[in-house]
Amino acid sequence: MTEKYELDERAQLLLRQLITSYTRDAQPVGSKNLVEMSGLDVSSATIRNIMSKLEAMGLVDSPHTSAGRIPTQAGYRFFIDSLLEVNDLGQSARKTIADRLSSDKTSNDLIQSATEILSSVTRLTGIVSLTHSVPAEIRHIEFMRLTERRILVILVINQDDVHNKVIEVDKDYTDLELSQAAQTLSRYLIGRDFYSARIKLIEELSDLKGEVNAIMESVLEAMEQVCNDSDQDDLLTSGESNLLQYTELSDINKLRDIFSVFNDKKDLLDLLDHCTSADGVEIFIGSESGYTILSDFSVLGAPYKINGKVVGVVGVIGPTRIAYEQVIPVVDITAKLLSSALNTQK
């Protein structure tokens, strides 16, 4: 919860100018520069006095022995909650994102495109989670004979999620027998939620032909494994190398830590899960994430939906000094356009 700070208009203006300058240059901002940037008709001594009050509040800090100051995590939070003026993305940028999220792409391609859009437009690391909260629906089943006792099961789940699974069987089946088995399974499973259709299918196994019964158990096990695998949350990232441009992240230990977060995925998935109920863009600054390893980073995320149900979160991760007024609308519109594309697929 945001702390309450009583700042007059002059103090607010100076804090905004300080954050704008530090976001651009990553350098502590001195009183003389603040006078010039703010256009205030006051002395440097007055500015220093205001800065001292902001520092006492915990909104700015003096690194080392520098005469200049930098914003703190609390300063960024106050700025975002009380002072931030979000930029309009503009029709041109909106059209560029919309064109790259065309509904004629597959779901997987759309989600991958969203990750790449976020990284290329913001120059940060794009992140997209897939919670797979939509029930696994079988769209297509096909068998292909590999050897006498090995069969390739080809499954299409939901819109376009293709899985291939090799199963071992007890006898040699002809192509015709495999085709008949696929047709029989299709009558029970195609267009239905796999888990409910599976129960119905098992109940009626005794009524099916013997050759279908013989491979049914192996096929159902394969399907269940595929559906379970597709239900696992996943995280896509793009533009990890963008973080190398920020001087404050140049420490090799910080880079090693953040790349381990990308590889492990669990912490970021847990954090993005907190964005699923957000109305718009959720922002975690530094330690607000709850993870020490992310104390030098900010994470922004917004949910995307299929048929009104949240199925994941799109967002970015970067240093705390990112240009929030520019990044927030990119995350917001990407989430909305991705939802629209996923919902209008044929």
Instruction: State the CATH topology of the largest domain.
Output: Beta-Lactamase
Separate helix tally = 12
Mean pLDDT, rounded to whole units? Answer: 85
Overall outline: elongated
**What is the β-strand count?**
10
Strand order of the largest sheet: 7-3-10-9-8
Could you name the CATH homologous superfamily of the largest domain? GAF domain
Tell me the β content. 15-25%
Given the helix and strand composition, which structural class is it? alpha+beta
Helical content (DSSP H or I, runs of 4+):
40-55%
What does this 3D model show about the protein?
The chain has 346 residues and is an alpha+beta fold. The chain has 3 domains: 9-83, Winged helix-like DNA-binding domain superfamily/Winged helix DNA-binding domain (Arc Repressor Mutant, subunit A, Orthogonal Bundle), CATH 1.10.10; 91-131 and 233-343, Beta-Lactamase, CATH 3.30.450.40; 138-230, Enolase-like, domain 1. The chain has helices at residues 9-25, 31-38, 44-57, 73-83, 91-100, 107-122, 175-189, 194-203, 210-230, 252-264, 266-273, 324-343, and strands spanning 60-61, 70-71, 125-130, 138-145, 150-157, 161-168, 234-238, 282-285, 297-306, 309-319. It is elongated, with a radius of gyration of 27 Å. The mean pLDDT is 85.
